[in-house]
Specification:
The structure is a homotrimer of 152-residue chains. The first copy, chain A, has 152 residues and is α+β, with helices and mostly antiparallel strands. Chain A has 3 helices and 7 strands, in the order αββββαβαββ.
Amino acid sequence: MLNVYDQLKKLNIKLPAASAPASAYVMSAQVGKTIFLSGHIAQKNGKIWSGKLGDTISTEEGRWAARSIAIDLIATLHAHLDDLNRVQRIVKVMSLVNSTPDFVEQHLVTNEASELFIAVFGERGKHARSAFGVTQIPLGACMEIELIAIAE
Amino acid sequence: MLNVYDQLKKLNIKLPAASAPASAYVMSAQVGKTIFLSGHIAQKNGKIWSGKLGDTISTEEGRWAARSIAIDLIATLHAHLDDLNRVQRIVKVMSLVNSTPDFVEQHLVTNEASELFIAVFGERGKHARSAFGVTQIPLGACMEIELIAIAE
Amino acid sequence: MLNVYDQLKKLNIKLPAASAPASAYVMSAQVGKTIFLSGHIAQKNGKIWSGKLGDTISTEEGRWAARSIAIDLIATLHAHLDDLNRVQRIVKVMSLVNSTPDFVEQHLVTNEASELFIAVFGERGKHARSAFGVTQIPLGACMEIELIAIAE
């Protein structure tokens, strides 16, 4: 079976420190085998990656933001589980794209995150997904992604 | 116990072929008994059903779009399970309505999907639900609905 | 172990009657130990609490709306379980804030709900969370919150 850390190395991804919640909640909550990860907002060089798709953020930049959040989500999973090889399935992703009323490429932006999960977790990374445009995101971030994973 | 296929026949509903994902994800992901269905976007005659409630799409048209997505979701469940009578519960629905800032009838539009689930699955179709207005949906679709079902 | 009803008393909270669904769905659906609560919309004195953050509703008012919905969600859980001490975990919260395209304090507004869950349920109230701005909410309500809880 594929080793998640080998995959991360091949992709030249170094996991950042796991995010801390901005307020009165936790970044991950597990009951039984199901782990709910809080919505993670886009960051760049340790600061909020703010802006709006269709206006100040291009689809290409959005893809990088999505990839960056996916890495942060994996870092939170690593902090939660200690061993990412215990992930049985990335089962559900919800991707919120800070969008103008005319921007319709939320799926293209989100693909970068989806593809990273599959590159890192293989078959275990294949997830159901919803992606859509929202009016705003806390602190003006350009994207927010939440995730449900199942642990062994 | 009610037979789901008899109900579909009574309602004169023929299930379409299950949708294929537009990108790097799957339309349904199951772990244990829980099946997560991806957000399905509205289609009409095999094309994206685009537009915005409160602007180019009326509440009445929105109800037809919601019904159409509900049928697509049932088609995906049929493809996933082989036998819809194995559905123990349609437990949760999230309905995203592509809305202007002034449109406030997301619940009326979504009712058409909710009522169809109950008509088809009976008591097993009674679900918790959130419905709300979003800024945009991939490819400009007028609605997107995701669903969680439990299988026997 | 902390008694939830003692906590409610200390906080001087009287649970209202549980909400009835506005249409073809249920306010709570349980399968196994998992309880999905429908999105509850903000109410004030028995009427819809309408308005938009960034426009007609201030962040401070939004906090009161969030607190009010959290109390309604607890009332629904009480009606569902008969005994709130059976709540093993408030595991996931999704908070939808009716926002202008410029309002970026969805997290501050939502904190009031998150803090109430922790005040009432203690460690069992610590949840994963997503909060974001939406274009509209049914009937023009200023906020909508849904919740997943686990029962013993």
